[in-house]
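Two folds, back to back.
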Amino acid sequence: MWLGARWARLTSPGSWASSATALTTYSHNCAAGAWSHRPRTASPSPSVQKRTPLMVHDTPALLKAARAREEASAALADVQAQQPEIDDLTADVRRVCWPAWKEAPPVKTRTEQRTRTVPKTIDGNTHQVQETYTVELPVPPADRDAQALTAVTAIAGFIVLGAVVWSTVAIGALLAMVGPTWTAYMIAFVFDAAWIGCLVLEWINRYDPERARTPRKAG
């Protein structure tokens, strides 16, 4: 309705001094933000006519956009005014929470000797000779899982060794009551060796329950 009334008022008889001049003037006014409907005495330059097509704007929308632009400018000014405080707070957080904010941890390296083939000219003849050079290679971080597994394996081996020693001593002491001491302890060690062998066979056949059943029962 508003657009029809504006268009009717714009196209009423006597309101245009010249059709082309009035149309161009209205287009230029819309593009420039002016809302006067009086035709101008002179037409805009050809560049303006080419750059500003016929456009119809909504005045409340333009006012709303202008207010939003002013609010955004005010908010930006507030942020810029508070920027020193923000920088100080950021510096405090970095200093307290991350002492080495800008300092990367040093990378451990190891030295390795390598050999490469390089050309070497002797008496006008070029030969390929071997040259030794040194490179620095980064050392990967320690694998904590592998270290823990190694520690557990060592503990298990120590326990097995203690069990073998204690079993050999106990069985040898019992057999020494009925025979020579060295023979008794040798036979006791045979019992322990057979037990260790059954454990190894059971571990080798851990994915085959049928084959692992026999060494498990024997052990």
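---
second:
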Amino acid sequence: MSTYREMAEIVRRRLAGGDISADFSIEPEEIYVRIAQISPYLLRGDFWENYRMDPANTMDATYYTTITSKPIHDKELDEYYVVLPGKPVMISGRGAPQVWYPHDRTWPFYYMEGGQGEMLAAAGITLEVGNSTNFWLETVSEDCLDSVRLYFDKLEDCLKLLKVKLVQIADINCINPDAPIGLPGHLEEPLILSLVNWFTEQDQTIEDSVPDNKNIPL
């Protein structure tokens, strides 16, 4: 299982076509951030019908992620939940994930804070605010990994897809370069290819924006 540092070295060598020169433009830290952004999709992509990041074409530590997912039914607890790619950034209750039905954006979803949702669900109480659905955030340990989930007290139709938009941050100060990425071996090559393709596209975009006539066809 590769670390962030080892993965960045592999990617930089592929981008450089061999040895890395002293003036190579892509720093390891840039690759660390991009790994933190896209590795959740490779690891848990089976949970989502679609996964989009905005901005998608620039390196930005703070970004929006929008997922499309079918709610999972926990039959033992009789609860429905959606797996998130990571913990959303929320400050003083602001920044809660936005949830909607793709087929009905008017149906209201209300976020509940501070364990209120878990306590009410455990007591078998459904807090109704008209025709609406309440949801809350939980982190569950699953197969030695933390699974960040949104739980719902009721859904209009458990078979329908949900869309969830959340704010995330990939802070370089919180990334240990020598920590394992956490991907199983068979997913490392897809990660490498994704990183190489993304940085190659970024490099081409930068070159094409330079007004020096080098990239203007005659």
